[in-house]
Design a protein that fits this description.
681 residues; glycosyltransferase; elongated; mainly alpha; GPI_mannosylTrfase; alpha-1,2-mannosyltransferase activity; GPI-anchor biosynthesis; transmembrane
Length: 681
């Protein structure tokens, strides 16, 4: 995805926009190619700098897939197996549902940068800080490329001399969703970049009119190379997210059938042969790359797209993570993606599907095809029960392009008629005159406020708490700051060695995957435990066992008849009694005469949302508390604000860290200080 793409034919050299925005198109003054190249390079440089700042500003938690479907497997690529690193691989990776191409990208970046920092013998805490920030910086490059190709494709559709491409650029830059999500390491974020880049390189001249150009559309120099690049990028996007194929089904359907399109098809027999040949060659090459990558990662031959289809269709496991109504993408998905630009996106989508005599045939056909791709994906994904906004993220650049003419027409004045070009051939383009300025200022202010709040404050605690734990680990165990291997010596673990492997440093009593994991904890010796939420893989769809299945997090938060939760789970599953009831005192339900012992490790810190404090006090500290024998005395040592609201009652309130008081050197222990010890008090 280089900044200077090979030459490609636009739908029309400098088409006008339809009546709603035609008056806002500059006269056709062709710029020198070197000027255009320099302009493109400048735009890309500015976007790279902007998204780099964007990446560093995003300090909040959105969804766990950002970490568990990208950075956790990437950590194993760079630093070793789960046993060596302490990374958390979810069930999807254990059953090969995901392509290794995406995490391999970050794994390679981890490996290269860590090797460089180790060679330079940099301060370990600084190394951990850089490794935590690295994935966002890498993703910022792809975020900038998504903005760049949105502008380039809009320029090809509406003309380089039009104001409309600049409107598309400003929309993608100022969209709150883009600021919030484009630099996150979701596979959907990379998918969006690959999709808009593939659309830019796509040979849109195939949608032209045969009467205008009777030659083979793929004959011009560079057209086949552009097609190859488009197909390769599209193939990678489909391998990352198989649902991406819906976009290309929509585009190919209209390209080949020309349903609803205007004009006569320019496709020749040789064009179709070339087209099919390149699809087979590029698809096979990308597929081979993916298969080899998966073989290296998983250790055996496998094909993740097939297993993804098997588990999500035949096993119906997607519904385990939630079911949404059929209209979810229409009522919530598109509005969340486009936010304040929603009216213009809807108008653009509607207008693009209808025939407009004011538009040239090539431009009208391109816009119809893009709109049809949007509707195809929305319609198909609306049938699936489990829905998420980010599943339709690749449609956002298309929506920006479709909406650009109408937001341009709404916020800019019609230029004053120019003198004849014969009398003033060198007259410079007239500046853009804005209108509805108050409305525009309010719209931009709303976007900036949304982007700022979501990126800096909403669910910020899950990120900052891991920074606290990691830095405290570095303070307590300065000799354990190595990424070479995880301590495996059981004797040392039981005794509490100076390597940091002898203690359970943190226990997360939060809903499953509420925080990142090894990508932010970093050090293998920083052992942590969290409630899990593996799906019921061994149950049949529609069975009673599946309907009544409760994962570990569900069992912790399951309320009894009195509305209480957690205490029974801690007593029976987290720290179960290791002696029989007959050996216990009457207090524990036994006949007395025995000393109660509990299995399970007591952590140095317990992490949870503030609502569980009553649960912890009831288990550890009340007079008849089941866990009084553990010796835990809770002290709050850290808390972080987690936003003004949360739709999940389990995540409401502040995120808190309690010191259990059973290890020396903690913030809450009487010993205090920074002595390095894993021994219990």
């Amino acid at each position: 995805m280089e900044s200077n793409p090979p030459p490609k034919q636009a739908p029309q050299a400098a088409p006008k926009v339809e009546k709603a925005a035609a008056a806002h198109t500059k006269p056709n003054r062709r710029l020198h190619p070197e000027v255009l190249t320099a302009q493109a390079q400048d735009i890309l440089s500015v976007l790279l700098a902007l998204r780099f700042i964007n990446a560093l500003c995003v300090r909040t938690f959105f969804q766990p897939d950002e970490y568990f479907q990208a950075l956790e497997p990437a950590w194993t690529v760079a630093f070793g197996s789960v046993d060596e690193t302490g990374a958390w691989l979810t069930w999807e990776w254990q059953y090969q549902l995901r392509s290794s191409l995406h995490p391999a990208l970050f794994g390679l970046a981890y490996k290269v940068l860590h090797s460089l920092m180790a060679f330079m013998n940099l301060f370990p805490p600084f190394q951990s800080f850089v490794l935590v920030a690295l994935p966002k910086v890498v993703q910022s490059v792809f975020a900038a490329l998504a903005d760049y190709y949105t502008w380039r494709l809009a320029s090809d559709i509406y003309g380089r001399d039009s104001n409309v491409p600049w409107a598309a650029l400003w929309m993608t830059v100022l969209n709150p969703w883009q600021w919030y999500c484009s630099t996150r390491t979701f596979s959907n974020s990379l998918e969006a970049t690959l999709t808009i880049a593939a659309l830019y390189y796509w040979p849109w001249q195939l949608l032209g009119h045969a009467k205008v150009n009777k030659d083979d559309p793929l004959q011009p120099k560079g057209s086949v190379n552009s097609l190859r690049l488009s197909l390769a990028l599209a193939a990678i996007a489909v391998l990352l997210r198989p649902t991406n194929i819906l976009i290309w089904i929509g585009i190919l359907t209209l390209t080949l059938t020309r349903l609803t399109l205007d004009g006569e098809s320019p496709l020749h027999k040789t064009t179709v042969v070339t087209f099919v040949r390149e699809i087979l060659v590029c698809g096979t090459a990308v597929l081979a790359l993916s298969v080899v990558s998966d073989r290296l990662y998983f250790g055996f031959w496998t094909f993740p797209p097939y297993t993804w289809l098997y588990f999500n269709i035949s096993q119906s496991l997607a519904v385990f993570y939630g079911q949404m109504p059929w209209h979810y993408y229409l009522s919530q998905g598109i509005p969340l993606l486009t936010t304040s630009f929603l009216p213009f996106a809807l108008v653009g989508l509607y207008k693009s599907t209808s025939t407009s005599k004011s538009l040239p045939v090539p431009q009208s056909n391109v816009l119809k095809t893009l709109a049809f791709a949007v509707l195809t994906m929305l319609g198909a994904l609306s049938i699936i029960s489990h829905k998420e906004v980010r599943f339709i993220y690749p449609l956002l650049p298309i929506l920006h392009i479709l909406a650009a003419p109408y937001i341009t027409a709404f916020f800019t004045e019609k230029p004053v008629a120019e003198a004849s070009t014969s009398s003033t051939p060198q007259q410079p383009p007239q500046p853009v005159v804005l209108r509805h300025k108050v409305f525009l200022a309010n719209l931009l202010s709303l976007n900036l406020l949304l982007a700022g709040y979501l990126s800096l404050y909403h669910q910020a605690a899950p990120i900052s708490v891991l920074n606290f734990l990691r830095t405290d680990y570095e303070r307590i165990h300065p000799d354990a700051l190595t990424l070479n291997s995880r301590p495996q010596d059981e004797a040392a673990a039981a005794a509490g060695s100076a390597t940091g492997g002898g203690e359970l440093f943190a226990l997360f009593l939060t809903p499953c995957h509420s925080t990142p994991w090894r990508s932010h904890l970093v050090w293998p010796g920083l052992r942590a435990r969290a409630l899990t939420c593996e799906p019921p893989l061994d149950t049949a769809p529609g069975s009673v066992e599946r309907a009544t299945y409760l994962d570990e997090a569900d069992r912790f938060y399951a309320k009894d008849v009195d509305g209480r939760y957690g205490v029974r789970f801690l007593d029976e599953e987290m720290w179960p009694s290791s002696t029989s009831a007959a050996a216990l005192s009457p207090k524990w339900g036994g006949g007395g005469g025995g000393e109660k012992q509990r299995a399970g490790e007591i952590p140095r810190y317990i992490v949870g949302f503030e609502g569980i404090e009553t649960v912890l006090r009831a288990f550890f500290e009340e007079e008849e508390a089941p866990g009084r024998d553990t010796g835990v005395r809770l002290t709050k040592v850290w808390e972080g604000w987690n936003g003004a609201f949360n739709e999940d009652w389990r995540r409401t309130g502040r995120l808190v860290v309690w010191d259990t008081g059973v290890y020396k050197g903690s913030f809450g222990s009487e010993a205090g200080g920074t002595e390095d010890s894993g021994e219990e008090s």
